[in-house]
Amino acid sequence: MAAKLTFNNTPPTGTPKAADLSAVLYREYALLARNRVYLVLGLAPMLIYLLLVNTSLGNLLKVVDYKGIQVPFAIFLLPMTLAMSVVSAAGTSGMAVFQEEMSGAATQLWSYPLRRSRFLLGKVIAGVSLVLGQALLALGVAVFVFELPFDLQAWAGLLSVLTVAALAFNGLYLATAILITDYQVFMLLSNVSIPVLVFSAPSLYPVDSMPTVLQWVSVINPLTYAIDGMRDAAFFGFADAWQDLLVLAVLAAISYAVGGRALINRARNI
């Protein structure tokens, strides 16, 4: 009679450990930093508007009335320049999704036990830091070129709104990139959306000076809340920007929820 084989050891049943967040962040920063074309495309419009448009229009129109106070027009335009930097850098972050797939990095990435939360968190931190880096560069140039009459509270409010706006638009473009499978469609949408968002928001003038149709459009334009929030925080204080902050925070939460859900299907189809 044959002897029965028995085994005393069993294979481990625990789930593999997810990739470390530091490794995810290193990969994201390397991906963004090595593509110098997208970095230039993100920086160029911001610097052009800051150094050419702001100064030219500032000389043409010295001051503008904003909610009962007289504001130098060149400083009034500063939130528009920062908002443009936010949108441009968010588009660059969204492009990284397609870069990963075209280079084959996405296939290698999802061959490992990587949690989608780690993947999204890595993209959020890297994308938002890119946005803030470009925006801080713009602020540094603005401090050098213009005389910014901001006190400590105004700077704190301005940077807070800028950070939440960066989170919101990074999430919006990231979710769009995950939902769209065609690289050319996303690239077209990203390039077209920047001027549409900027010029259908109160970028160059207050809302009450806009045509009636654009006033309606500005209500559903998320960039309106970023620009108005930065202006209100800079000119009136942090407390006047809380409604804009709330809208941007809700947009960020919805965008990352949609992006995280769509990421499951995206990873399965690779």
Question: How does the SSE layout of this entry go?
Answer:
Elements: H1 21-34, H2 36-60, E1 63-66, E2 69-72, H3 73-76, H4 78-103, H5 105-109, H6 116-145, H7 152-179, H8 183-199, H9 212-220, H10 222-235, H11 242-268
Antiparallel strand pairs: 1-2
Helix pairs in contact: 1-6, 2-4, 2-6, 4-6, 4-7, 4-8, 4-10, 6-7, 7-10, 7-11, 10-11
Structural class category: mainly alpha
Unreliable parts:
14-19
Number of helices: 11
Helix content: over 70%
Mean pLDDT across all amino acids: 78
The profile of the biggest β sheet is: 2 strands, antiparallel
The SSE string, one letter per element, is HHEEHHHHHHHHH
- State the end-to-end CA separation: 51 Å
The number of E-state strands comes to 2
The gyration radius over C-alpha positions equals 22 Å
Global geometry:
elongated
User: How much β-strand is present in the residues?
Assistant: under 5%
Q: Numbering strands along the chain, what is their spatial order in the largest sheet?
A: 1-2
